[in-house]
Amino acid sequence: MSHDMSENLPEAHGASHGAEVVTHDDPFADPGLPAHEPRRTDIDERAAKRAERQVSLMFVLSMLATVGFIASYAAIDADKLVYIFPLGKVSALNFALGMTLGVALFCIGAGAVHWARTLMSDHELPADRHPIEASDEVRNDVIEQFKTGAAESGFGRRKMIRNTLIGSMALVPLSGVVLLRDLGPLPEKKLLHTGWDEATQAKPIQLVNMNTDQPMKPEDIIQGSLTFAKPHGLEESDEDFQQRIAKDALMLVRIAPEDIKDAQSRDMGFEGILAYSKICTHVGCPISLYEQQTHHALCPCHQSTFDLADGARVIFGPAGHPLPQLKITTDEQGFLVATGDFDEPVGPSYWERKR
Amino acid sequence: MKKLSARRRHPLAAVVVLLLALAATGGLYAAFAPASKAQADSSSQSLAIDEGKKLFAVGCSSCHGLNGQGTSDGPSLVGVGSAAVDFQVGTGRMPAQQPGAQVPRKKAVYNQSEIDQLAAYVASLGPGPVTPNPDQYQPSEDKVTNAEQVAKGGELFRTNCAQCHNFAGKGGALTDGKYAPSLEGVDSKHIYEAMQTGPQNMPSFPDTTMPEEQKRAIIAYVQNTNDAPNPGGLALGSLGPFTEGLFSWIFGIGTLIVIAIWVAAHTTKAKKS
Questions:
Q1: CB 3.0-4.6 Å disulfide test: which of A29, A197, A340, A342 passes with A22?
Q2: CATH second-level architecture of A195-338?
Q3: What are the binding positions for heme c 2 in this chain (chain B) (predicted)?
Q4: Nearest CB partner across the interface for A88, out of B172, B209, B233
């Protein structure tokens, strides 16, 4: 193919544009631009015609696709589902609109690329680099204008204007600094305590099942089960429910007492029932991916893993503290109650935290 | 005979011998292995327990012990109840194919009457959760009540189940190769039994903390989610915009790069260099 074409090349074509290749002693001599090579469409009128037809065909296809877009918008029912091979069941309307619009846009682009590659001029044009600096004449002129301006405004002579201008410019950024106050105020004691804080030995707070909204007895929590609880008195209809449950949320598990490795954790529970905060100590995601055989709780956000049988010790991931545990016992009616707040602040660490 | 022995040094001789040996072993196993026989119908509970004990001795005792007391390879089955057996064997998880992080769901090996016999035997070892009957796990047929159950079930699902099984029930990863399986195409009865018994590493949700009608509501929600049409096509694990974005970046932009390289690599010059 290329042999056939080279016979059609005009003799002088390459030589007229290309610079002579220098083969002197200098090994770093500028070899100049390579000779311009014509394209098939430059020298073969039939090839040019064919390229023209191909480009127009792309544009016509694009037109048809746009018509198809409008037609499918009008004709296809929005609820219709069709089976399309790798995608499965999809909305017929969405699929038709996406395909036709995609074809319409793609054909315009493909036609334009083909047009530029085959028919538009492809002569290489070198563009030399120039120094960025302006000419001395221009520079002198600008400096002259600046000096005249400075003299005419009296900036150097009228000191009061100059000083007050500098003062006002210096003060303006302060408005932005003052707005940074909205990053605060500091949380103060709010993060140290939760809703369980109001519980005391004399006035304990009942644990309420999130599913049934009822207090629970120890025998309700069987080994291997997972239950979520909130403090008595916190209702989903409360205006601040979301703010409060974000700190108060509890997960209750029951582990055979002999399997609990941490003695302190075992004492804070009741007959193997342990109440841990549901809020991850890394960045505060709700964490309840509990595996009942390994007693691991996994945080879905960053894969921090806590061993609930060992005082919720962190065994993997970025969390810095064990999950806080709530000390529980039973009241005189036999319901599970808390007699105080968590042993540590819940949720992620913050700078006022003492430990 | 002479011809055959002359070929014993052929490079493929070892492969042929190996294939023959494998075929012989497989054929012998097929011929002598205990075939699962159809079980005679029996209304008597003790008969079912007897039959179940026989099935148990053949299919389960190697790991769970001859009396279901458990061994180093399998847990004790005393007190797991018939619901656990119906779930584990009914979903094909048991008998387990191989040890590993988690026993996967597969085609059930036993038929339902055999499963019932096994369940009767294991239930006789100690009291435990009982296989539920349809009015315990079947959501309401009534359209309005069903819609109520779906709404309530969605709420309960997001509180109790979605953390592991994904909000659309597509499942998700846990630690050390364990995973929460997808709930697509799982029998209502098996979902109920799973909540009741807590199979493998799934925690259980007993009636004391999640009453029966709440379990039914969750099943109604799962059924509704499975049946809901998906106009978008490829769900990509129903994980939301993250996977969708990743997919478009890799495949969309990847395709564009390939096209750009193809365009640049094909010169239009008449003289190919």
A1: A29
A2: 3-layer Sandwich (2.102)
A3: 161, 164-165
A4: B233
